[in-house]
Amino acid sequence: NAGVMQNPRHLVRRRGQEARLRCSPMKGHSHVYWYRQLPEEGLKFMVYLQKENIIDESGMPKERFSAEFPKEGPSILRIQQVVRGDSAAYFCASSPRAPPEKLFFGSGTQLSVL
Amino acid sequence: GDSVTQMEGPVTLSEEAFLTINCTYTATGYPSLFWYVQYPGEGLQLLLKATKADDKGSNKGFEATYRKETTSFHLEKGSVQVSDSAVYFCALIPYNNNDMRFGAGTRLTVKP
Fold it and tell me: Of A56, A76, A108, B17, whose CB has the highest number of CB atoms within 10 Å?
């Protein structure tokens, strides 16, 4: 049973470009969470999605950031018009139920904005 | 809102030393409490958890006890190894909530 898969592992973008981060949860998991980790800081909750629905996006910046988890395919975190401050590690986690007994994390996507 | 606060790092210990990483929480109701570990270049892995007061979570020689009276969930290990070098995160899931909230993380380095 494959774990949570995130790709790409590393993503380099220039200021103003778009970044698309993908997350495939573990098989059977319909709940997905996105977190951002800035250097030497903890994980900050961004958004919680269940298949086709955004349940809680209280941690997501109001502009430029969006997330989706379609019926088929991976969850996507999209950052439009990236700025240097968006450089961070973005982690996806999944669980089979809510509330989760625990979260299973992917290896993350390191976004670097030049 | 509900949150956790953990001791700042970094922490540097010699092999076989005793480890304590402090974590306290603020919550309404009874959250579930967790310790996660992050090795270099990897995602977080669950280390241990406790879901109610006085529960003790344990794994790989690490232990933490859910203390309601002191709102704490301190991580301990009697004898650390070089392979324990990692970043450790305290976390909680608030009662009747779905998202997990993390502390800032504590970097542990164990020297031979």
Answer: A108
Encoding tokens for residue B37? 């570990």
The two three-digit tokens of residue A92, written as one number: 């996806």
* Contact between B43 and A4 using a beta-carbon 8 Å cutoff: yes
What is the chain A residue with the closest CA to B48?
A102
- 3 state DSSP class of A16: coil
- Contact, B64 vs B75, CB < 8 A? yes
Residue range B66-70: mean pLDDT, rounded = 95
- The DSSP annotation for A46-64 comes to EEEEETTEEEE-TTS-SSS
- DSSP per-residue string spanning B86-98: EEEEEEEE-TT--
* Of residues A54 and B28, more confidently modeled: A54
DSSP code per residue over A63-89: SSEEEE--SSS-EEEEE-S--GGG-EE
Per CB-CB distance under 8 Å, the chain A contacts of B100 are 33, 45, 93, 100, 103
Q: pLDDT digit string (tens) for B19-53?
A: 999 999 999 888 999 999 999 888 899 999 999 99
pLDDT in tens, A62-91: 999 999 999 999 999 999 999 999 999 999
Note whether A33 and A93 are within 8 A (CB): yes
